[in-house]
Amino acid sequence: MLNIVLFGAPGAGKGTQAARLVGKYGLGHISTGEVIRDEIARSTPMGVSMEGYIARGELAPDELVIDMVADYIARRKNPVGNIFDGFPRTVRQAEEFDKLMQRHSTPVDFMLSLEVPEDVLAERLLLRGRDSGRADDSDEQVIRNRIRIYHEVTEVVARYYDAQNKYVAVDGTGTVGEIEARICAVVDKYL
Predict the structure, then answer these.
(1) Does residue 81 contact residue 28 with C-beta atoms inside 8 Å?
(2) Is the peptide bond before 88 cis (omega within 30 degrees of 0)?
(3) Which terminal residue of the chain, N or C, has fewer Cβ atoms less than 10 Å from its own Cβ?
(4) CA neighbours within 13 Å on the CB side: how many for 84?
């Protein structure tokens, strides 16, 4: 079993690359962003409570996200492994996630971080906002706030996994295929 934390700033290409890895390796995929947007669209209690955070480009509260991931792991046991896209986003989430994965005897194998310059991130997000209509990707001020929060709060999670010798950085620029080839070279080493 292979468990990968797919990491990077908003717009780094995590969702795009996760979909390719799922297709190539048969891994399960949880995107906390997609789950949260689905909860909001269905107006569930969790979605209603998270809607304000998302609209402002802020992180959802740790407890809600941890509970959501715990529920996913309990319901979906993929014998090949999983890609966790957009989670964990805080050190507290990473610590709780490690405990959760240990209880299921499926530890995180490594964190794969897509490294992309800030100006490229903003361009990608604005383009995605135009193409998808996602409100959180259509406002440059919200985008800049999301990137700022990533640097202030989320980026430290990389150090958490680096201290465990589980951190791998990959150049996240270039074509989708070029980035995928770099990622697959890393994944293949763990298989």
Answers:
(1) yes
(2) yes
(3) C
(4) 26
- Ordered DSSP codes for the chain: -EEEEEE-STTSSHHHHHHHHHHHH--EEEEHHHHHHHHHHTT-HHHHHHHHHHHTTPPPPHHHHHHHHHHHHHH---SSEEEEES---SHHHHHHHHHHHHHTT----EEEEEE--HHHHHHHHHHHHHHH--GGGT-HHHHHHHHHHIIIIITHHHHHHHTTT-EEEEE--S-HHHHHHHHHHHHHHH-
User: How far is it, in rounded angstroms, from Cα 154 to Cα 114?
Assistant: 13
Round the average pLDDT of the chain to a whole number and report it. 91
Overall pTM > 0.70: yes
Looking only at the bridges linking them, the beta strands covering 2-7 and 110-115 are parallel
pLDDT digits (tens, 9 = 90+) for 65-104: 888 888 778 877 788 999 999 899 999 999 999 999 999 8
Which of 59, 58, 57, 61 lies closest to 138, judged by CA?
Answer: 57
